[in-house]
Amino acid sequence: MLFGSRTLDLSVPQVMGILNITPDSFSDGGELWSDGQLRLEAVIDRASAMVSAGATLLDIGGESTRPGAATVSSQQELQRVLPVLEALKTRFDVVLSVDTSNPQLMLAASAAGAGLINDVRALCEPGALAAAASAGLPVCLMHMQGMPTTMQKKPAYTDVVEEVSGFLRLRIKACKNSGVGPLLIDPGFGFGKTLSHNLALLARLRELQALQLPILVGLSRKRMLGDIVGRPEKAREAAGIAAAVLAMQNGACIIRTHDVAGMVDAVKVWHAVLLQERAGS
Ligand code: 7PJ
């Protein structure tokens, strides 16, 4: 699949490294900031480590979607993300993804060399469909119930998998009508979902394959893993790998993670077994 100027082979799962450049990020707590300033050198070092470890995409996020996080103005978000995009695009041969719902940033990011728009609001913000269409980039559509500030208050579904895929189906149609694409889909683990909703989505992820689009998953360090293993965010790597392997087995082809090195090894093991199986053991 073509992501801007770069092609990735999605028949092998690809690892997307998370570069959160918010001062209040949910799991890497603003380590890239000092004295209210983003440290570009620190961002580059972190990106470099992820690329060396085998990430083929980097997801740059300038807006925290953590429940209760401070809202950022469009201007602030652009000022955070664009210099990072500029710095990374000349240094690393990977797909740069922007984690944003902001139409202005979609356009500016595309001009600055981004290869993917990753929108947790599935282009529902006013102007987002039109901006993504003129950006001309692939878009990952994610499902969320409610809005980040309130989404974990009382998530409720009759059948979570049916509702997530119904929502995605509508957004895919809206994108096709607006000339947006190519598309990827994501069930949005943790976005307006209880542990049991998240587990149902992971167990039945394969059902989303009916939409016939590449599936991206973001499980890394999330609370659902903490609820299962009882560990703090930074000690959830093993839990995240186990969950991602299940997701790959159920059709996921991009894994969004904070912990790239371990995940790349997990993908290699999973893929080696797949090839053996295809060869007819
Ligand atoms: C996701 C995301 C996810 C996609 C975040 C976090 C919260 N984008 N952005 N999927 N999560 N596509 O990293 O825990 O699950 S921000």
Summarize the structure.
Helix content is 40%, strand content 17%. It has 281 residues and is α/β, with parallel strands linked by helices.
- Strand elements, count: 12
Helical run tally? 9
Task: Note the main sheet.
Answer: 8 strands, parallel
Quaternary structure: single chain
Low-confidence blocks of residues: none
Report the helical percentage: 40-55%
Distance between the termini: 29 Å
Largest sheet strand order: 10-9-8-7-6-3-12-11
- What Rg, in angstroms, do the CA atoms define? 18 Å
Estimate the global geometry from the Cα principal axes. globular
Helical/strand content category:
alpha/beta
Which hetero compounds are present in the coordinates? Answer: ligand 7PJ
> How much strand?
15-25%
Nearest-integer average pLDDT: 95
Helix and strand sequence: EEEEEHEHEHEHEHEHEHHEH
Secondary structure layout plus pairing:
Layout: E1 2-3, E2 6-7, E3 14-20, E4 33-34, E5 37-38, H1 40-52, E6 57-61, H2 74-89, E7 95-99, H3 103-111, E8 116-119, H4 128-135, E9 139-142, H5 160-178, E10 183-186, H6 195-203, E11 215-218, H7 223-229, H8 237-249, E12 252-257, H9 260-278
Parallel strand pairs: 3-6, 3-12, 6-7, 7-8, 8-9, 9-10, 11-12
Antiparallel strand pairs: 1-2, 4-5
Helix pairs in contact: 1-2, 2-3, 3-4, 8-9
The structure holds ligand 7PJ.
